[in-house]
Amino acid sequence: MIQRKTVSFTTLILYILLFTAMFTLFYVGSNGEPFALALLFAVLIAGLDPVVCPTLYVLSALSGFNLVFLPVYLGQAALMLIAGLIIRRVPKATLPCSFISLFLSLLLFVFLAPFSRYALPPFLSFLENTFTQKAAIAAVIFLLGAMFSIAVKAILNKLLKCRLKSEELLFSTVLAVFIGVGICRGGGINAYMGIAFFLLLVFSCATKDASTLVCAFILSLPPALVFSISPERFFVYGIAVALFIKAGRLPAVLALLSAFFAYGYFDGLFALNASLLVRALLSAIIPALLFLMIPAPVMRRAESKLVFYREKHLPRVAINRNRAAIGEQLFEISGVFREIQTTFAALGSTEAQDGAKEYIHGCVKESVCKACNNYRSCLKKGLDGALKRLIDVGAAKSKASLIDIPSELAELCVYQSEILYAVNHRLTDYRKYMLETENAADGRQLLAGQAQGVSEILKNIALEQSAPLAVYSDKEKQLDVCLLKAGVVCSEVLISGEAENLTLSLVTFGKADVKKIAAIASEVLKFPMIISDRLTLGKDKFCCILRRKPNYDAAFGVATMMKSGEIASGDTHSVIKIDERRFMIALSDGMGSGEYARRISESTVSLLESFYRAKMPSSLVLSTINKLLTFSREETFACVDIAVVDLDTGSADIVKIGSPTGFILSGNTLKILESGSLPLGILESLHPDTASYPLEPDDVLLFLSDGITSAFGSTTDLYEVLKHVPAVNPQELADSLLAQALSLYGGVAKDDMTVLAVRLFKAA
User: Fold this and answer.
1) In sequence order, what are the beta bridge partners of 703?
2) Cross-strand pairs, 657
């Protein structure tokens, strides 16, 4: 079955453009000079079809010249066809074969092509000879072939994919200028101006920056070479378009037409006859209308592609690679801590306890039972198991008594008193040993818990760091344009993260207004942004970092007073920022009052702050602090209130451990927060009361130490007081409650007293 080759639309457009370019290049000279041969040479080296390209060369030549040139063009096309076929079969022969065919093709032009000698200025008198002029033109075409080959390869392989090298840009510009010269000579000034205006408008709309002036300069070269039109005219056109393109396509078109008509007035354009005037006007109006008719999505895609082409990708790639490497390393370290936790957990067993009981059992048998004449008969009757049960009961009670002796042992054993004495004597050492064993086990459990917490923290960071930065090229470009309109010059704009964790980093110059930057960023990104940090990079150069603004903000109020006669308060409070979107408040009431209570309370709060800042799980935080307090040989108790508030959702995770009643004041209603657990440090196991409460704007969360609640006598009395105390200002609320509690004590603080109030409100 024969397969037919299909030609894609892109390939068809490419060959149409190639035909057009070759056609225009034949008009560069007046004697049919084959400047298009340089382009044919370039496209064959670039790998285009070796049959189609020479065919297009001949067709483009015949469309504008008589049959006198046909033999030369056919011979050149044949030579290039042969070279192209050889290149297809032997790729290594590309350069020598193609250059040889180009050289031979130019020899055909030099020796066979008809030619009319050009009149040259005196300083070029050495080129007066016809053959010499043809040889010089052939040399120029040969040089152009080398230049065009680099330009065509760059255009076909790199355009809108990566940045072109300086020589590729230069040679591409030379190719464009020669094509422009061909348009000017073949189509006239009006045709060229129409094309130039259209290209200038499209390029300006796609870039929206000062590179429009570079485009205008390149477009000014062909008419300057052919018609001696000053390039400054195109600079004015470029400036007019560049200034107004950011305001929209229509303002840019109007600015360009205004500049064109202004030049026409001074050039005498409107004094021309009707036919010439209409042509001149149409050369500006038609491209303007075509530009306005381009669909907006098409222009956005063009702009997006050009932005992507011009964007510096290596910094983002380097950041992503570093993030991935750090994330992978953190994940491995997390695994190490997970193994440590598993190992410590596996070490916790009852082998030590069982071994100690076996040791006591052996000692009792050696010291008492083996000296008895009935030893062997007792073993046969199973009294050894009864002795083990007695040791188990004694270990559980710390001491064995007569009532603990099993019945079979009591009936048959004649040395019961001696056995009890021996068991209790060994149990004394057993208790000491087990205490040390339990402390070691508690230590292992504590370390296992910490290893687990560190493992989870590292794992979460690893997952967060491993995620690559999302690409927001469109938003970054839009931000750059909007900031520039507002007078804020940015050399770099980078958006990273997603959703709530979105971060905007930009480098600004001068004393930029951070409020203006935040306002513009909020408008472009469609959610409120705030300045998170401002770093100085150099003189008048700063890096501003903006993050998404939370939906809520908070105001705090604290009122405290120590117990009369004491030098330190046992109450300690804390308000810390966990991250950009969460904060924690804590109130710890250490046992009693004075210096010792202060140390307990401060230690508890300090541990809470450190653990929550490290983002350790709440359950592990509380169990660890509880374990540390129980390690103390003295009685170290602490009543704790903890609340972690999310400023995006307004939810508050509240933990109460042996603490007095707390409240949530919401409008005209009060929610009572109570604790059913014992304070920290009393029991080794901890079961705190935890709950999540949704806070509304203007709700107030209120924590109180027992010095305040005791003053009011009962929760009912305090409830009634709070119903009549204004809660708009949390500091005034705290001061008012402390003053009333002190008044109820008769003006003398009978205990440490602390009020901690937090009011949530909608962020501006």
Assistant:
1) 756
2) 640
Fold adopted by 473-548: Threonyl-tRNA Synthetase; Chain A, domain 2 (3.30.980)
If you classify domain 552-762 with CATH, what class do you get?
A: alpha beta
For residues 374-403, average pLDDT: 78
pTM tops 0.70: no
Query: For residue range 517-572, what is the model confidence (pLDDT) as tens digits?
Result: 888 888 888 888 888 777 777 777 778 888 888 888 899 999 999 888 887 777 88
Q: Name which of 585, 584, 588, 629 is nearest 605 in CA terms.
A: 588
Q: Could you give the CA distance from residue 292 to residue 197 in angstroms, rounded to a whole number?
A: 12
Q: Distance between CA 89 and CA 217 in Å, rounded?
A: 43
Q: Any idea of the CA torsion for 656, 657, 659, 662, to the nearest 10 degrees?
A: 10
Give the phi and the psi of residue 361 in degrees, each rounded to 5.
-60, -45
Q: 729 — phi, psi (to 5°)? A: -105, 115
Domain boundaries in the chain? 1-187, 188-302, 311-468, 473-548, 552-762
Beta strands 529-538 and 571-579 are unpaired
pLDDT band per the 50, 70, 90 thresholds, residue 1: very low
Per DSSP, the chain holds a count of helices (H) and strands (E) of 26, 14
Handedness of CA 615, 617, 618, 623 (dihedral sign): negative
Distance, CA of 526 to CA of 529 (rounded, Å) = 9
CB 217, CB 231: distance < 8 Å? yes
Q: For residue range 323-359, list pLDDT tens digits in order.
A: 666 666 666 666 666 666 566 565 555 556 677 777 7
Structure tokens at 230: 């000053």
Q: Which helix H or strand E contains 574, and what residues bound it? A: strand 571-579
